[in-house]
From TrEMBL:
This is Glutamate racemase. The gene is murI. The keyword Repeat does not apply. InterPro entries: Asp/Glu/hydantoin_racemase (IPR015942), Asp/Glu_race (IPR001920), Asp/Glu_racemase_AS_2 (IPR033134), Glu_race (IPR004391). SUPFAM superfamilies: Aspartate/glutamate racemase. One of its GO terms (molecular function) is glutamate racemase activity. Pathway: Cell wall biogenesis; peptidoglycan biosynthesis. It catalyses: L-glutamate = D-glutamate. Belongs to the aspartate/glutamate racemases family. PANTHER family: GLUTAMATE RACEMASE. Coiled coil: none annotated. GO terms for biological process: cell wall organization; peptidoglycan biosynthetic process; regulation of cell shape. The active site is at C73 (proton donor/acceptor), C186 (proton donor/acceptor).
């Protein structure tokens, strides 16, 4: 048993979709969340920049004495070197493994779609893991670089015409390929789930990468005997690198019933 908090980070607020699920499945755990709101988005940046940002995010979480780190960001998960992750002093997971596993378990036709940021799709991370698990799979991967700014700027509500048009533009080729499973490979995308689901149609199952990762992390913590042993009363502390005011406005949207907890701004460059 281990009473220390679980550390979760993202380039912005998308990782809160993983926190929401963590709170649901592990209500007795303390959580420290860092959202790099001052430097979001990561997905349009160079690989070296993303790795350098991720190192700082991880150092900050380690300074908070976390027992386990979740990179609740498809972009970091697709970019941060696995050898470096393996050398960290605490266990680390990204979202690619759990989301790929969920997609492979879901598909019946063997046609899987993946959507993510430009950096995620360029890395080929999901496709490589899925091909290992399911040889012969047909993969359609599509970068959706405008989705993160739409979500971070409050355009995720159903009925935004701009959002509907952009969804149709990005997802028409994916729908035409006849996929039956679509990985939301960026943790911001569940905020667009209803609109994406409506566009793709009822025959397509959407895989929420943050949600399935939270579930997998809960199992890993249990296997490693790292759970706190408490069944409720877990707290959450939130840190951001830009003004906490925007975070407070948006956290309900991401966290739903689990909103709440102190928010503090930190100087991430110092880490
Ligand atoms: N939530 C991040 C991800 O999963 C957003 C990426 C970005 O900052 O561009 O990829």
């Amino acid at each position: 048993m281990d009473p220390r908090p679980i550390g979760v980070f993202d380039s912005g607020l998308g990782g809160l979709t993983a926190v929401r699920q963590l709170r649901r499945v592990l209500p007795g755990e303390d959580i420290v969340y860092f959202g790099d709101t001052g430097r979001v988005p990561y997905g349009s940046r160079a690989r070296e920049t993303i790795v350098q940002y991720a190192r700082q995010d991880i150092r900050f979480l380690l300074s908070q004495n976390v027992k386990f780190i979740i990179a609740a960001c498809g972009t970091v998960s697709s970019t941060f070197p696995s050898e470096e992750a393996a050398r960290l002093p605490v266990p680390y997971t990204g979202v690619v493994g759990a989301a790929s596993r969920a997609a492979v378990n879901t598909t019946r036709s063997g046609k899987i779609g993946i959507i993510g940021t430009a950096a995620t799709i360029r890395s080929g991370s999901y496709a490589a893991v899925i091909r290992d698990m399911l040889p012969g799979v047909e993969i359609t991967a599509q970068a959706c670089p405008l989705f993160v700014p739409l979500v971070e700027n409050g355009y995720a509500q159903n009925g935004s015409r701009a959002t509907e048009l952009i969804i149709a533009d990005y997802l028409t080729p994916v729908r035409e390929r006849g996929v039956d499973t679509l990985i939301l490979g960026c943790t911001h995308y569940p905020l667009l789930k209803k609109s994406i689901g409506d566009f793709m149609g009822p025959g397509v199952t959407l895989v929420d990468s943050g949600k399935v990762t939270a579930q997998a992390a809960a199992e890993a913590l249990a296997d490693l005997d790292l759970l706190s042993g408490r069944t409720d009363g877990g707290s959450a502390r939130y840190y951001v690198s830009d003004t906490p005011a925007n975070f407070a406005e948006q956290e309900t949207m991401f966290l739903g019933e689990y909103a709440g907890g102190p928010v503090e701004r930190i100087a991430i460059d110092a880490y």
